[in-house]
Amino acid sequence: MRIVLLGPPGAGKGTQAEALIKKLFIPHISTGDMFRAAIKAATPLGLEAKEYMDMGLLVPDDVTIRIIRDRISQKDCQEGFILDGFPRTKAQAESFQAMLADRNEALSAVLNIVVPLDKLMVRLTGRRCCKKCGSIFHLLYNPPKEPETCDACGGELFQRKDDSEETVSRRLKVYEEETFPLIEFYKAKGLLRDIDGDQPISRVMVALGRSLGQDWS
Ligand code: ADP
Ligand code: ADP
Ligand code: ZN
Known about the structure:
The chain is an alpha/beta fold.
C-alpha cells in the first residue's frame, strides 16, 4: 500500500503514522523527521534545511524531491510506504507522480486529515516530542504518564523550536498557500479520502482504517 497523509501542520499525521505502521508493516517516511535527523548530524542537507525550517518556510522543492526519490528506492519501500509531510507543493506532487510512473507504481490513497484551522495553534504549541525515539505527545490531549518523559522509551521530551506561536502562524499560512491546493490535485485523480481529524486520536485511527477497508474498532 502506498499512502500519503495530507493535512495541515498539527492535523495528526505523525501521530497516526506511528499507529498505522504497526497495522500495515510498511515504513513511515516523514520529510520533517528526515530533515531533523540531517540537522542533528550536521550534514550539508541539514545545514541548508535548518535555515528554512527555523523560519517556518518550506525547504526548496529540488532538495526535498531528491531525498524522497532516494528514500522510496530503498528496499524496505518495495511493499509500500506511508508518506507524512510530503508532498507539500504542487511541484513536489507532480514530480512524485512522475517518480511513481517511472517505477510502474501507483498511489493507493491520499488520506486528508481535516481539522479546523483554529484548533491547530493549541495542538502545535502544546506538542512535545521524544528526543530519543520521536514519539509525539500533547500537554493536554495526549499527556505522557510522567511529566516530560516518553511513555515508550523513557526519553526526555522537548518542544520543537518551530512550534512557537510566531513560527506556527507562518507555517499555517504556508500550508494554505502551498499545500491546500493539493486537495484538489488529488481529488481530480480520484485518490482523495477525507478523514475527520477533529476527534480523539483513537477515533481518527478507526476512521483511517475504515477508509482503507479495515476494521480497527
Ligand atoms: P502533524 O504531524 O500533522 O503535524 P502531530 O501528529 O505531530 O501532527 O500532532 C500535533 C499535535 O496534536 C501533537 O501534540 C499530538 O499529540 C496532537 N494530536 C494529534 N492528533 C490529535 C487529536 N486527534 N486530537 C487532539 N490532539 C491531537
Ligand atoms: P508538521 O508537524 O508541522 O507537519 P513537519 O515535521 O512535517 O511539520 O515539517 C517541519 C518542517 O520541515 C516544515 O515546516 C518545512 O520547513 C520542512 N519540511 C518538511 N516536509 C517538507 C516538504 N515536503 N517540503 C518542504 N519542506 C518540508
Ligand atoms: Zn521515546
